[in-house]
Amino acid sequence: MTSKELLSELKTKLYISKHALIRMQQRGIPLEAIAIIFKFGSKMITHQDYRYIFNSKKQKKKNREIFFDKTFKKFQKQIENTALIVHQNNLVTAYRIQGKIWRS
6: which of 13, 30, 38, 101 lies 20 to 30 Å off by Cα? Predict the structure, then answer.
């Protein structure tokens, strides 16, 4: 999947708030990484929001082809170390994962 296809799909399914854009710029998280995490990442409920993370171990079992994608290879480090907070198809924020993510 090309970068343009990912970004156009992301724009149709997810609204990115001003706060999220500012945080992405401050933290050096590219839109392509956001698109891959949103499309292929694991979705968990946190309070009223959803948290998306990209779990490499789960993806190796479910979707091996993603690891050979050029866009994924280019942004692999950012994809594996970033979490998204989404509320009703609005991206609230994106942040770097610095430790373990607690799963309930």
Answer: 101
